[in-house]
Amino acid sequence: MSFADWIGAPVNWVFLVVGFLTLLSALKVVTAKNVVHAALFLVAALGGTAVLFLMLSAEFVAWVVVLVYIGAVLVLFLFGIMITRAPTGKDVGLDSPNKLLPALLSGATFLLLGWASLDAFGSTEIADLGEATSTEVLGLALLGRFVIPFEVVSFILLAALIGGVTIARRDLSPLEEEERGAV
C-alpha cells in the first residue's frame, strides 16, 4: 500500500486527528505545572486511546480503558489529591534541571518500540490477522470461570480506597480541636 492510498482513506484521517490529539494530551500530562491539569490531560490521553481501540474494532478493550483507567484510577487519583490537600500549584523542588536526558531516553524508547513493532508485524494488515475474540467470550470468561478473582480485585481496590482515606485523615490533638472550636 502506497502513502497516497493510505492518506486517501478517510479512516486514516480520523486516525491522524485522534492520534495527534492523544499525543498532544500525553505531552501535556508530563509538562503541566498543575497536578490537577495533568490528571485532566491524562483523561484526554486515555480517552484518545480508547477511541483508537474502537477504531481497531476492540470494543471491549476500549470500554475497559474508559471504565477502569478513566472511571476508577483517575477518579481515585483526583480524590486522593482532594483528601490529602496536596499542593496543586507548581513545586520547584520537583522540577528537574536536567530535561535533555529524559527526553532522549523517551525518544530512544519510542524508536525501539516502533522498530520492534515494524520488525515483528511488517506489512501485515489487521484484517489478515484472523478472527478477533468476541466480547461475549471475554465476558463469559471473566464472569464465569474468573468471577472469584474478579471480585477479589474489587475488594482489594475498596480496601486501598479505605486505607487511603484513613491515612489521609489525621485526627486532631485536643489542643488543635480547642483552637478550631470543635470542643
Structure description:
- By secondary structure, this protein is mainly alpha-helical.
- The chain folds into two domains: 1-88, NADH-ubiquinone/plastoquinone oxidoreductase chain 6, subunit NuoJ (Four Helix Bundle (Hemerythrin (Met), subunit A), Up-down Bundle), CATH 1.20.120; 133-183, no CATH class.
- 75% of the residues lie in helices and 0% in strands.
- It contains eight helices and no strands.
- It has helices spanning 3-8, 10-31, 35-55, 59-84, 100-121, 135-145, 147-168, 174-180.
- Helix 2 packs antiparallel against helix 3 (35-55), helix 3 runs antiparallel to helix 4 (59-84) and helix 4 packs parallel to helix 7 (147-168).
- The relative contact order is 0.07.
- The mean pLDDT is 79.
CATH topology of the largest domain: Four Helix Bundle (Hemerythrin (Met), subunit A)
CATH class of the largest domain: Mainly Alpha
The helicity comes to over 70%
Task: Give the uncertain stretches in residue-range form.
Answer: none
Rg measurement, Å: 22 Å
Number of domains: 2
Main sheet overview? none
Query: Would you report the number of β strands?
Result: 0
Please tally the helical runs, counting DSSP H or I stretches of 4 or more residues: 8
Distance between the termini: 76 Å
The SS-based structural class is: mainly alpha
The SSE order reads HHHHHHHH
Structure characteristics:
183 residues, mainly alpha, Four Helix Bundle (Hemerythrin (Met), subunit A), 2 domains, 8 helices, 75% helix, extended
Short description:
The chain is 75% helix and 0% strand. It is mainly alpha-helical and 183 residues long.
